Amino acid sequence: MIAPPASEQAPVADNPSANGAGSNGHGETLGQRLRRLLVPMRPPPPINPALLKHTEKRAEDAQNRVADRITTFAGSMTFVYLHILWFGLWIGFRVEDYPFGLLTMIVSLEAIFLSTFVMISQNRADAKRQVLADQQWETVQEEKRQNQDLLDLSRQTLALAKDLHSGSAAAPSSQPGSSGQRAGADPAG
Prior knowledge:
The protein is an all-alpha fold and about 190 residues long. Helix content is about 65%, strand content about 0%. Helix 3 (about 60-75) crosses helix 5.
């Protein structure tokens, strides 16, 4: 039996039953486990149509895409693991002597840039909240208009019901031959 090309095979992480792999990760290669551990997971795409439109519009700008990638990476455990490894190797291989002036300067510069990307991420989150707030406001206004239309219809229905009721109460006296006489009786005599 010929196996399908690797591009058509589902990865083991997506198909835990493949190759006897269970939920504990048995059957995965070391590379697959490392990738699952180190590569930041992408958040699911938004479901809300307004957020989906906002995300697509934001993705049109290359600067926004780069900033989003950096903040996604900087907010991942991969970032933490790489820094642990980097600092451990820097100190372990004695790249410089104890006060670690160069390492301190590099880390400080990195912190400056990362704080900027954190602010960019906050601005992005604020923009998303504003999109949701605007959509909710439009929904509330539409519901308010619909409620007013329903109230108007209810008032019209009530007025028609009152007219119908008052018309039916006056109806017996206004019908021919119902002015207190029996049907078929001669009014003259």
